[in-house]
Amino acid sequence: MPPYAPQLLVALALAGLPFLVSYPWAIGGGRSVDALDAFLLVFALVNLRLAWAAANAAHGGRAPAWFILLGLGAAALIASGMIGALTPR
């Protein structure tokens, strides 16, 4: 397993975790946002960024194709989760 793969796996796990847990935070007017999801997704994004930088460094500035596909999938999952978490309900 490449040394940057565990960081990608942690990012994917953190991006999937908000589907299982939540912590609504009241923002007034009877509306709330999901603070725990946003917190977890920020850490997922940071982990994805670190993994992406490590993959690029390990391969001379170009990450492998499998990593790019998984990384873009993780980024899409993080973005959709963050939109859902920060949209007031």
Structural class label = mainly alpha
Side-by-side strand order of the widest sheet: 1-2
Please report the number of helical segments. Answer: 3
Largest sheet: 2 strands, antiparallel
Distance between the termini: 41 Å
Order of helices and strands: HEEHH
Shape: elongated
Amount of helix:
55-70%
Average pLDDT works out at: 90
* Low-pLDDT segments, ≥5 res: none
- Number-wise, the strands total 2
Task: Characterise the protein shown here.
Helices cover 65% and strands 10% of the residues. With 89 residues, the protein is mainly alpha-helical. The protein has one domain (5-19, 34-86). Strand 1 and strand 2 (31-34) form a beta hairpin. Helix 1 runs antiparallel to helix 2 (35-58) and helix 1 packs parallel to helix 3 (65-86). The longest helix is centred in the middle third of the chain and has 24 residues, at 35-58.
Report a brief summary of the structure.
By secondary structure, this protein is mainly alpha-helical. It is 65% helix and 10% strand. It has three helices and two strands.
Structure characteristics:
89 residues, mainly alpha, two-stranded antiparallel sheet, 3 helices, 65% helix
SSE layout:
Layout lengths: L4 H12 L7 E5 L2 E4 H24 L6 H22 L3
Antiparallel strand pairs: 1-2
